[in-house]
Amino acid sequence: MTKQDLVNAVSERSGLKRAVVESIINTTLNVSKESVVGGQTIYLRGFGTLGPKTRKAKTARIIATGEACHVPERTVPAFKPCFSFRQEVEIGKLLKGNQL
Asked: Which residues contact 17 (CB under 8 A, 6 or more apart)?
């Protein structure tokens, strides 16, 4: 699903104009990005947690040469779905598998 597909689906379900929904979604995404970049974590009850996650420094290997190289510690955005959301996805997967 693309962002435009999401805009269309929300517009149809809510009865709001597409332009209004697109503006709301864009604003929500921008505020979310700014928060995570600023080191904050966003908790969405029933959906999950979005926030910065620190990846430890490690030693990696360059495949072409076999040479070891150092990968420094870095911070990346991370999403962790809540338990109920994970369950819904698993149930949906099981139901879809039974229909085939």
From this structure: 11
Task: Please report which helix (H) or strand (E) contains residue 61, including its range.
Answer: strand 58-61
| pLDDT tops 60 at residue 69 | yes
- Claim: this prediction has a pTM higher than 0.85: no
pLDDT tens readout for residues 6-34: 999 999 999 999 999 999 999 999 999 99
List alpha helices for the chain, DSSP H.
3-14, 18-37, 83-99
Determine the Cα–Cα distance for residues 26 and 30; give it in Å rounded to an integer: 6
For the segment(s) 3-99, the CATH number from 4.10.520.10, 3.40.1060.10, 3.30.1330.10, 3.50.50.60 is 4.10.520.10
Indicate the DSSP class of residue 91: H
pLDDT, one tens digit per residue, over 45-61 is 999 999 999 999 999 99
